[in-house]
Amino acid sequence: MSDSRLTEAVELAFGRHETFAPRFGWLHKAYMQVKETSDIFHREDAPVELGVGKNMVYSMRYWSKAFKLTQEYAHDDPKYRSLLAAPTWRARWLLDEDGADPYLEDTGSLWLLHWWLLSSEPAAKCWVPSWYVIFNLAPRSRVTAAEMTRVVTRHIHENFEEKHWPAPESIARDVECMIKMYALSQEFNPLSPGSFEDLLMSPFRELGLLEGQGKGKERMWRFTSGSRANLPAPVLAYACLDFASRTASNAGSISLARLTGEEGSPGRAFRMREPEIAKAISALVESHPGLQIVEALGQRSLRFESSPQKLAWDILDEHYGNVRQREGFPSPEEWLKQYPGGDGLGRRRPRTSLPPQAEELALIEESA
Predict the structure, then answer these.
(1) Please, are residues 251 and 302 in contact by the beta-carbon 8 Å criterion?
(2) Is the pTM of this model over 0.85?
């Protein structure tokens, strides 16, 4: 068995993107619709309202949940088997018309979403296990798509019982989708519907995380590393403090080595080494009274004087023009009163009141 935290970190969701990487405009459009219509992803007119094909509706639902912009919950009526969706407070903060960056024009917002995608939080695990394995557990070397598939398969098999293993083709589709999502240079497949659009439509290619060499099945892929000129220091500091809030919240500090190399860390997600993280946040730390980089016994640490989660949001919000201070902007508590399904608690329907056949359907829907 592996000694990774994979079993606690991820939900076993494979292939639910319907082969589509997230596209420009999808997350904002999904948020605006979910805010008004909790069952939008199940409505017959969803393709018309969202302006996409039916399979893309399923993909938009999945990506909205994977980026932690929606939470799903059971309808009060146990006869209604489909899960409803509620927008999370962070979605309100980022994607509303008066939010931080509704149209994701700032590349820093894409880095932020990338961090949310890979993060595993107490009330919101990582919904992209293949992504989690590749960024956190895979060797940092050149690999083919087939080798990436084998790495993900091995980690899933080592950490989960056989009854939970996905079909091999599901993991292969995940790897293909990951390449579509991040790779700057891709090969156009004229036999694949939507292949040309995939080359143009994924905003996450702007992050420059994945490079390819060669052609065909033997094409090698390499996740880039180094300094990230388009990653704003406040977004990086947010990720560091967000990680610390889950792993070192009571310590008052966290070593840069952990921030760089530990599973689930910003260094893993952003492919950055310790000197690059230290350099990237040093200017921000110098100007922020609540942060320090200290050195003891040859080890550098990021020290924080207050709650790392609160400090993380203060720094991030300031970078985006103090969104939370805008007139009428709701607090997280106020938002949850309006959208209680977005609390991350995953309210489940009372199965005891359902007949056996309906209970089976409920279990299938809740795992979807």
Answers:
(1) no
(2) yes
